[in-house]
Amino acid sequence: MRGSTPNLIKILKLALTGTKGPSACAGLALMIWIRMRSSASTLGSAPDWFRLVPTIGFFILGTAVLESVTTGSPPSLPVARPVRESTLGFMVASRSHELEIFWNRDAPQIAGAEKATLEISDGGVTEVVNLEPNDLHDGFVAYIPKTNDVGVRFEVSEHGATTTESARVVAVP
After folding, report:
1. Per-residue pLDDT tens digits of the chain, which is 173 residues long
2. pTM of the entire structure?
3. Which domains does the chain have, with CATH numbers?
4. Of 100, 84, 82, which Cα lies nearest the Cα of 92?
5. Taking Cα atoms as reference points, which of 78, 68, 90 lies closest to residue 22?
6. SS3 assignment for 22-85
7. Angstrom distance (rounded) from CA 92 to CA 167
8. Which has the closest alpha carbon to 144: 127, 166, 130?
9. CA nearest 10: which of 28, 29, 38?
């Protein structure tokens, strides 16, 4: 009976490399181990089975945690919301390895825009992107940052009036 623990480790190693996923293989390994253990001891021996109950509980909990870690998607970062109400609907969302820059394409300033620019400052390098009317009507631009500190300035000119909004995204490395 003492020799069954190394057998369990061997069975788990084999099962976790299976093709049906860790949970299915780990469950199969547990069933095989229980059969091996029950054949090594007398059937119906209550003390042996009662000692096995906590082991099964911890095994199921560990399997559930392993599955959630291996199949879960990485959490996305929250959207940076403006402190005051934005007239352009401007906001920046940080996703896994990119920034999504949004604006309200139905805003009056954008509908009548003569000129629009995005000024992106990334690690001391500033890039100015002139937006065409088609770009403005899309309502967003994706940007892959080079550093963890990015400033975005959105400027729209309409009939001599200029509306500017900005955001800064700082991610922890």
Report:
1. 455 555 555 555 555 555 455 555 555 556 665 666 655 555 555 556 667 777 777 788 777 777 766 665 555 555 555 555 667 888 888 887 888 999 988 888 888 888 899 999 998 899 999 998 888 888 889 999 998 899 999 999 888 888 889 888 887 54
2. 0.51
3. 4-71 (no CATH), 79-170 (2.60.40.10)
4. 100
5. 68
6. HHHHHHHHHHHHHHHHHHHCCCCCHHHHHHHHHHHHHHHHHHHHHHHHHHCCCCCCCEECCCCC
7. 7
8. 127
9. 29
Which helix or strand (DSSP H or E) is residue 143 part of?
strand 140-143
CA distances from 81 to 46, 103, 153, 168, 172 (A): 60, 12, 14, 11, 18
Task: Give Cα 61 distance to the centre of its chain.
Answer: 23
Element of type H or E holding 15:
helix 4-16
Which tokens go with 103?
A: 């604006």
Angle at 155 between CA 149 and CA 156, to 5 degrees: 155
Calpha distance 165→152 (Å, rounded) = 9
**How do strand 149-158 and strand 115-122 relate by DSSP bridges?**
antiparallel
